């Protein structure tokens, strides 16, 4: 166990380990960062659930859904800033392996809000919410080694 702690903190490696990088990224303690992550992620989930419940409100339901669902996704995405720090989060979001997924995800977030507030097009808002879901899922699995390859193979098997 001590060996694992030394490796994670970078004491046994030439480069600092992931735990050492996280600790150096912010003046917040680790427990405060974890609490911030949990609170921000929980707020995101709560907004998404609330948005789903508001979907059934007459006339304004779809717009409320789009707004709360988007705010929930932004909050959930932002929760990892507590763990990594803002600069490292931005660097990782725009790495070549995630660049397209990040751009599509951010574009869907923006277009959902545009279709709800400025264009007043409920159909587009719903389409962008669905695209937002898939874009965020694709972006999220990019952090899991070989997950994208596994998903691609599953779809290839299902479609053939």
Key features?
globular, mainly alpha
What report would you give on this structure?
There is one protein chain. This protein has helices at residues 2-9, 18-25, 30-54, 61-84, 86-93, 99-117, 122-141, 147-159. It has 160 residues and is an all-alpha fold. Helix 4 (61-84) packs antiparallel against helix 6 (99-117) and helix 4 runs parallel beside helix 7 (122-141). The termini are far apart.
Oligomer kind: single chain
Summarize the amount of helix as a percent range.
over 70%
Total of DSSP H or I helical runs spanning 4+ residues: 8
* Fraction in beta strands: under 5%
Overall outline: globular
Strand count, sense and closure of the main sheet? none
Please give a quick description of this structure:
78% of the residues lie in helices and 0% in strands. It is an all-alpha fold and 160 residues long.
Question: Any chance you could write out the topology, listing elements then pairs?
Answer:
Elements: H1 2-9, H2 18-25, H3 30-54, H4 61-84, H5 86-93, H6 99-117, H7 122-141, H8 147-159
Helix pairs in contact: 3-4, 4-5, 4-6, 4-7, 6-7
């Amino acid at each position: 166990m001590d060996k694992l702690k030394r490796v994670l903190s970078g004491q046994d490696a030439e480069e600092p380990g992931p735990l050492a990088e996280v600790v150096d990224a912010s003046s917040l303690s680790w427990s405060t960062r974890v609490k911030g992550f949990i609170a921000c992620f929980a707020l995101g989930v709560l907004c998404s659930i609330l948005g789903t419940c508001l979907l059934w409100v007459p006339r304004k339901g779809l717009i409320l859904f789009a707004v709360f669902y988007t705010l929930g996704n932004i909050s959930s995405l932002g929760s990892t800033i507590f763990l990594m720090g803002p600069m490292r989060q931005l660097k990782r979001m725009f790495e070549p392996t995630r660049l397209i997924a990040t751009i599509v995800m951010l574009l869907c977030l923006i277009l959902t809000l545009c279709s709800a507030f400025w264009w007043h097009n409920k159909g587009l808002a719903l389409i962008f919410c669905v695209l937002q879901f898939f874009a965020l899922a694709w972006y999220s699995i990019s952090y899991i080694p070989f997950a994208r390859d596994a998903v691609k193979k599953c779809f290839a098997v299902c479609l053939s």
